[in-house]
Amino acid sequence: MLSKRIIPCLDVRDGRTTKGIKFQNNVDIGDPVAMARLYYEAGADELVFYDITASSDRRDIMIEVVRRVAAEIFIPFSVGGGIRTLQDMRAVLLAGAEKVSVNSAAILNPAIISQGAQAFGSQCIVLGMDVKRVALSRIIPSGYEMVIHGGRTPMGIDALWWAQEAVRLGAGEICLNSIDADGTQEGYELTLTRLISEAVPIPVIASGGAGVPDHLYQVLTVGRADAALIASMVHYGTYTIQEIKEYLGPRGVPVRLTW
Amino acid sequence: MLTPIPDIVKFSYYMSRLVVIDYEAGNLTSVVRSLKALGVAGKVTQDPRVVKQATRLVFPGVGAAGKAMATLQRLGLDQALKDCFQAGIPILGICLGAQIILEHSEENDTPCLGLLPGRTRMLPLKPGIKIPHMGWNQVRFLRSHPVFQGLPETAEYYFVHSYYPDPGETMVLGLTDHGMEFPSALGRRNLVATQFHPEKSGRYGLQLLKNFLSWDGSDVE
User: Fold this and answer.
1) Do B33 and A122 touch (CB under 8 A)?
2) Pick from A30, A45, A59, A127: CA 20 to 30 A from residue B172's CA?
3) Which domains are present in chain B?
4) Going along chain A, which residue ranges are E strands?
């Protein structure tokens, strides 16, 4: 039986990992390569790196991080943040990442999804979605709207529609981040996660809000997610990945316990 | 004056001629890197002459069967692979490389290499089962094989695919459950293949690759 994946997410700025609360006041918590190795050995099923480097002329730093990570760990990892062109995708994949994640660039230019899928295969292309709860309307019938710039800019695009459109364009996986839940450590957005996961045939990674192992239990059962992204709860040493999996396993969630 | 190369060095070079076949089907970076982590430099090539001189072959790949077969034929790698299989050198197929070794693939209705009898089929669509099958899953090994030695029963391996190989029954070495039980490890004589990616399957994936590197390719039947 396919295991539910537990995926630590590392935000990287100028080659160093950080963790933001609601995308603000980022705190530097270390070297991404050392952290990747640590999580690999601790039983992470996959890793996500999100490059939040502000200036694009410093992207080479991230490519070098990807190359060093790829030499150290032998599980899949994806890289997102600042991926705008096929060339950006190619650089990251050739440096050793398994997948690339496109977020705002895909909203502004949906063709990047189909071009990426064509060039590298759907399995490489992750659609990152930043979603905010809004009032139901004719434009946003699901009550969930796509946002960019860390939630500051609403796009007038319905999240459910966008998820299905991205599948049609060739996305192989969705990383679904609730801006409302992100950084709160009060639990994932279960309604949103279930809505999207049941509407698409591809795997959905839930993101935003994890604080205790039960939050993962909820999103992987009630929320129907295929994987759960975690950050603070492991970055600050509150829980180990093993503790999280040992919470999930006996409760009937299939997880990888041998590594 | 150049010092002549001692025979022993020539011999070890010959022994270590590990070739990774590049037929433009996906990214070979992680395969090469995992071999490197095991201390072996694999030579990545598209040249059928280099493939024919290999003493050990890795045949990876992701992507569509139709395009992959067309590329293999265009480069003359299809015949080189068949020759290597006949010659008895150890071959490891990975993912797409575990599918197009069969006779036919449902994907793009493609005639394939036919190193093993059988067909590649699409995973059935079922409620609650996501396709592609992406993530970690177990393999129920049906019998022992040198390449799968020392792997714990509870170990899991990383999969990402929508089609699965369905070879002749005697060639199925392991099964995996995703909506149905499908063959995830197969082999015959000097050929062994996995639907999963050992190069991305952590410690046990590396163990499998290490086993392959020391396997003499002897018949498993």
Assistant:
1) no
2) A45
3) 7-213 (3.40.50.880)
4) 5-13, 16-21, 24-30, 47-51, 77-80, 99-102, 125-133, 144-148, 153-158, 173-178, 204-207, 227-230
